[in-house]
Amino acid sequence: MISVEGDNSLATLAFMELAIEQAKLALKSLEVPVGCVIVEDENVIALGRNRTNETRNATRHAEMEATGYLLERWQKGGLSKKEIGMRFSKCHLYVTCEPCIMCAAAISILGIKAVYYGCANDKFGGCGSILSLHSRNTDGSSEMKDCFTCKRGVMASEAVSLFRSFYEQGNPSAPKPHRPVQACAIYSNWWPVLAALMFVMVSMPCLFFGSWSHCILNQPQRNLLFCPTLCYLKFVFAYYLVYLYNLKI
Predict the structure, then answer these.
(1) The CMP/dCMP-type deaminase domain covers which part of the protein (predicted)?
(2) Which terminus of the chain is more exposed, N or C, with fewer CB under 10 A?
């Protein structure tokens, strides 16, 4: 089943607004700005936001934070697995971005009744973008049955705006890109020195062997300006070549 466009009722927008607030808290903490709330009988019973950088745990997505909080609270309260399952089956989850494959699988296992999300997750989405874990084949037939209802597009523009702000400010915890090291890269800032060395090498014969240019070039001895001009032109040419080479490194 493909996720349908989100419900825009006042209650849905109010709960998603709370999820947006959680995403803003994540953004302030330099986390990927995703937030969620879990609602039971029209009451918010859990909040969650991304904490992967803070905890140094890549599984601590907003949905995992919120459901983990409920599991811990209900287990400490003495509820059995069956009772916990019954509680989850009455819950609705509101999240600013489509749950990833990991989170969608967890939501399916826990038996949450419905999921409302904002923007799509084109790379890792588990509710229709990449996989459709909210629907599965349970009886061997070709018909897909819903594990949980999934509605998309609730306050999607606000969710996208938070992502845009996050990527504009940069992620200091992101791994540094690995680029191949070029053998000549260490000389990338040495092009003025190389050009100067070329100038010296080109000029030395003209400075110390003036008659050399006269013999080789068959120019009259009085044309003393020719040799420095030739050196200067060679220097400019060498300087320009090294500069262009530097731009490619």
Answers:
(1) 10-138
(2) C
Exposure b/e, 84-96, CB count within 10 A at least 16 = b: beebbeebbbbbb
Query: Can you tell me the distance from the alpha carbon of 126 to that of 106, in angstroms, rounded to the nearest whole number?
Result: 10
Q: CA angle 236-241-242, nearest 5°? A: 100
Find where tokens 């420095």 sit: 228
Residues of the chain by 3-state class (helix, strand, coil), percent to 5: 50, 15, 35
Contact in structure between 52 and 29 (CB atoms under 8 Å): no
pLDDT digits (tens, 9 = 90+) for 180-217: 544 444 444 555 565 556 655 655 555 554 544 454 45
Token reading at 206: 């003209």
The pTM of this model reads 0.67
* Residue in the block written with tokens 């808290």: 25
Say how far apart CA 135 and CA 2 lie, in whole Å: 8
Q: What is the DSSP letter of 97?
A: E
What would the pLDDT profile of 58-110 be if each residue is shown by its tens digit? Answer: 999 999 999 999 999 999 999 999 999 999 999 999 999 999 999 999 999 99
Dihedral sign computed on CA atoms, order 59, 62, 63, 66: positive
Q: In the chain, count of helices (H) and strands (E)?
A: 9, 8
Query: Is 63 annotated as catalytic?
Result: yes
Instruction: Determine whether 146 is exposed, middle or buried from the number of CB atoms within 10 Å of its CB (0-12, 13-18, 19+).
Output: middle
Report residue 227 as tokens.
């040799």
Dihedral over alpha carbons 103, 45, 19, 125 (to 10 degrees): 10
